[in-house]
Amino acid sequence: MYRTGAASLDDGRRGGAMLETPERTGAAGGGDEIERRSALTRWLDGVRANPAGRLTLKIVVGVLGTALVVGGLIMVPFPGPGWLIVFGGLALLATEFAWAHRLLEFGKRMLGLWTQWLLRQSWPVRILVSAGTLAIAGAIVWFMVRLTLGVDLVSEGLRFVGR
After folding, report:
1. pTM assigned to the model
2. Do residues 125 and 115 lie in contact, with contact meaning Cβ atoms separated by under 8 Å?
3. Can you tell me the distance from the alpha carbon of 32 to that of 161, in angstroms, rounded to the nearest whole number?
4. What is the C-alpha separation between 130 and 85, in angstroms, rounded?
């Protein structure tokens, strides 16, 4: 959820849009989770209630979210959770910035379309996409190990197998 309104409103409205929360929709769920979420929402509303708190919150969320996005983008070529961290950073930024919310929704939509496309393909195409992904990840690992440690994994592997 992102905020466009300046002050908190008790009727659950933020910037003219009604929020659907478990308290308002009557969805079944854990009562503790609802209370914790309510406590966090009340605390954030308290911070946003004055201009200094609102600005400080935007700055903190902006710096942390940007750090997560940049760090995730640096990790994207490497095997690991690069894209997950990018989306996490965008989700954090989306709590305070409308542009980040739109970008996050676009990214989720494109990921869904890519997944649907891949699932419609035959098994050979899926296997080729997976093999290509693994080959790229392996090449990146090989390059980084050679660059940082000075070890050629291919040469070492061939020497090991040749024994």
Report:
1. 0.60
2. no
3. 57
4. 21
